Amino acid sequence: NAGVTQTPKFRVLKTGQSMTLLCAQDMNHEYMYWYRQDPGMGLRLIHYSVGEGTTAKGEVPDGYNVSRLKKQNFLLGLESAAPSQTSVYFCASRVNYRGSVVNTEAFFGQGTRLTVV
Amino acid sequence: SQQGEEDPQALSIQEGENATMNCSYKTSINNLQWYRQNSGRGLVHLILIRSNEREKHSGRLRVTLDTSKKSSSLLITASRAADTASYFCATAGGNAGGTSYGKLTFGQGTILTVHP
Lengths: 117, 116
Known about the structure:
Chain A has strands spanning 4-7, 10-13, 19-25, 31-38, 42-51, 54-57, 64-67, 73-78, 87-94, 107-108, 112-116. By secondary structure, chain A is mainly β. The relative contact order of chain A is 0.32.
């Protein structure tokens, strides 16, 4: 099983450019998450999705958009990249077990290192 | 703001010693989870403790949860150099149908270094 796969793994953008990060999971999980990780800040939740076609804002959603058109994919978009968005981005997914996601663990991708210059 | 905050931010010990990390959180939770992150890698789930549990063990890991103090601790016994990593607590809260249901928020992490 591939688990959670993020593409690309590395990317350098110029300020103002746009890009989309792709997260794909093959575990049939309902819940998916996008986090960013910065030194000394831990992981901060950007957006998350509780199912196909649904998205919700996390702690730091500004400057990002997401879409969950297919259950297995969760896309994170940067419309106009800024240097403040230089970070490592992680995607995660959780299963909805017997109608509840409450007591389930998250599975993480390997991360996307994004630099905005 | 972060839901969970770990303490200490960094911990350096010798192989064979025990390592204790603490996590404090602010709001009510359904469970608290601990994750490990090796340098340059994604997070890996270690252990989950439910809000109605006080202590849980898994191999060399021992987790405690005190909901009255809104705190948890992770103890790694007989540490090894391979335990060197960052450790994060994560809280899962919210009621079904509520606005925060399904959210999973992380703390800032503790960097553990185990010297051979």
